[in-house]
Amino acid sequence: MKISIKRQYFIEQLNHCLKAISPRTTLPILNGIKIDVSDDQMILTGSDSEISIEITIPAEIDNEEILEIEEPGSVVLTGRFFVDIIKKLSGDFVDLETTENFQTKITAGKSEFNLSGNDSNQYPLLPEVNDADSLVLSSAVLKTIINQTNFAVSLSETRPVLTGVNWNFNKDNISFTATDSHRLALRRLLDKTFNTEISNAIIPGKSLSELSKILTDSDEDVEINLSQNQVLFTYGNMRFISRLLEGNYPDTSRLFPENYETKVSVNNSEFYHAIDRVSLLAREGGNNVIRMTVENNNVELTSNSPEVGTVNEAVNASAIEGEDIKISFNSKYMMEALRAIQDEEVTIEFFGTMRPFTITPSESSEVVQLILPIRTY
Amino acid sequence: MKISIKRQYFIEQLNHCLKAISPRTTLPILNGIKIDVSDDQMILTGSDSEISIEITIPAEIDNEEILEIEEPGSVVLTGRFFVDIIKKLSGDFVDLETTENFQTKITAGKSEFNLSGNDSNQYPLLPEVNDADSLVLSSAVLKTIINQTNFAVSLSETRPVLTGVNWNFNKDNISFTATDSHRLALRRLLDKTFNTEISNAIIPGKSLSELSKILTDSDEDVEINLSQNQVLFTYGNMRFISRLLEGNYPDTSRLFPENYETKVSVNNSEFYHAIDRVSLLAREGGNNVIRMTVENNNVELTSNSPEVGTVNEAVNASAIEGEDIKISFNSKYMMEALRAIQDEEVTIEFFGTMRPFTITPSESSEVVQLILPIRTY
């Protein structure tokens, strides 16, 4: 292998690739990035066996030369270290040349590195994903969906399926659900369907979190393909593959109550900052519990901690309906739920002190956030 | 105590004050910030008993009202938590009111916090520092001096005096020395003297590092006063007091050799980046050792590590004099030494493979960085 490649572009692609590499891998070769050079392109691969990222670099982009190939070939080089070297070199282009035993010479300016590489035949093959049926979403929409649900996945391995987001392909919509059994985040893509034989897929939260770092807010297409065990996201010159979680996702549809007892509408950002202030004291007091009181057409947030003090926030509500209520909840869950709603006004519906309550945009049913209250007496 | 204060200005002053507060204090009241309000000003005090910071806030600055005093008084409030509250409140002004038992009510907008405060009489008195004789330096110069020396103090408590920077008041200059016994940083203020009875002061590195975060690059004066055990820096509305280290600082003047065997001049920034690249491999190989070779009028940096590979950097030297030499050193020390020199060109003088070498600006003797080589054979 002997090539010359535009350094800045190479760094960006390598950085994407690194997102799949974990320092805690059990297979040493997976610490590396695989570089495959054919006659007309280079393919970079990084993987931690849960996530794999494959990036194709062409010789030219918009008539600008990116990659000059003198001799095809392939090698695996230690990921993070190799990328650090490319970053710190000087000059517009960097040259790579592999000699015997996968020794790789990296030169740019007055610098010459000689690294021990590995045989790319030792690198595991990526899983095959059938790309017959595709679901297509824009990068911005997919990124938003991930941000609106992924924070609510469980961090505990007690029930592994809860560490993922459940993508449900319904007859007339697609829904995305995450829950750690204390709160739940639901996003619906109304008027969008995916005709596949698979009725749902549970995608690991960790994979979605890495994917969302790569996605931009653009309207560029992301093509999504599913097989029994894997999901493939194709985005620009990148293929992002994640394994799926096995097992049955709990039926969460029964969790959503009907007929609220109390309903309050507030400005999202104002309410968020009020919760943020009250939670300061709640946190200092050693828990995150704050209390919300709806009484005499007033809404108030309070928290108290015997050693530290008390706090009181009056909340501006644009509408209050139904019964008075006093209810306690975890302020962190409330703040994450509010952040996941982009709308200016949100509506909170309560169904009694001990039953889960919901937070939704006042004008849409695309997002539903559900939180279990905390018993404080 | 009952006051109203401009929130943004208050936050800035509190942030300065926090720099003196350590979460690991043994005296619980030192977790707090002392607030003293007299008829016409407020004084904030933070301390960890090593460093104390005292800030005076007047009622007006440039005819703009900063502080409105309704009732003088004083209280101690938990530092970090109190500052977090002030930061998260809304509105331009925040009101503080102390009632019985040092309960303090903080109000702004629709928020009301009630915090348990402490009696300010329990707060330790700050040490007195005689301010008869002052050394005056500009903020920018003092900040530079700290940055050029403080990185070289010892982090080990084995020889406590080495954890400080030695300020030496000589007959015709002032010198600042730091060493961890592997390398030494010396800065001289030529043509500047300080006529005091004290011939030197060892200021803890930690204090200088906090002070340097507060100092700006302006030419505003910093007044420095010394007593036997304390140093006081007066800067704007702030008094920064640090204890001094006790003990005798070693005589470092004998360390500087004369009559170099080899002398090399290089561009500071180019050389720094070359060292940075070579050190990548040195670090990956598990140590920080790199080798410099001066031979046949060429300068080369190399490093190798059997498992990882080798690296080779040709260095552009603007002048090479004297004997050929091969010498090994810690790349981290070299990079820190180069960063401490602001000049574009630096000169490195070698006195043999096993003796310390020096790095200085090519055109000045204000800064001398000295590094002990590493024996590699």
Automatic annotation (TrEMBL), chains A, B:
Subcellular location: Cytoplasm
Gene3D superfamilies documented for this protein: 3.70.10.10, DNA Polymerase III, subunit A, domain 2
Keyword annotations: Cytoplasm, DNA replication, DNA-binding, DNA-directed DNA polymerase, Nucleotidyltransferase, Transferase
Pfam families: DNA_pol3_beta (PF00712), DNA_pol3_beta_2 (PF02767), DNA_pol3_beta_3 (PF02768)
Residue ranges of domain DNA polymerase III beta sliding clamp central in the record: 137-251
Quaternary data: Forms a ring-shaped head-to-tail homodimer around DNA which binds and tethers DNA polymerases and other proteins to the DNA. The DNA replisome complex has a single clamp-loading complex (3 tau and 1 each of delta, delta', psi and chi subunits) which binds 3 Pol III cores (1 core on the leading strand and 2 on the lagging strand) each with a beta sliding clamp dimer. Additional proteins in the replisome are other copies of gamma, psi and chi, Ssb, DNA helicase and RNA primase.
Biological role: Confers DNA tethering and processivity to DNA polymerases and other proteins. Acts as a clamp, forming a ring around DNA (a reaction catalyzed by the clamp-loading complex) which diffuses in an ATP-independent manner freely and bidirectionally along dsDNA. Initially characterized for its ability to contact the catalytic subunit of DNA polymerase III (Pol III), a complex, multichain enzyme responsible for most of the replicative synthesis in bacteria; Pol III exhibits 3'-5' exonuclease proofreading activity.
Protein name (Swiss-Prot/TrEMBL): Beta sliding clamp
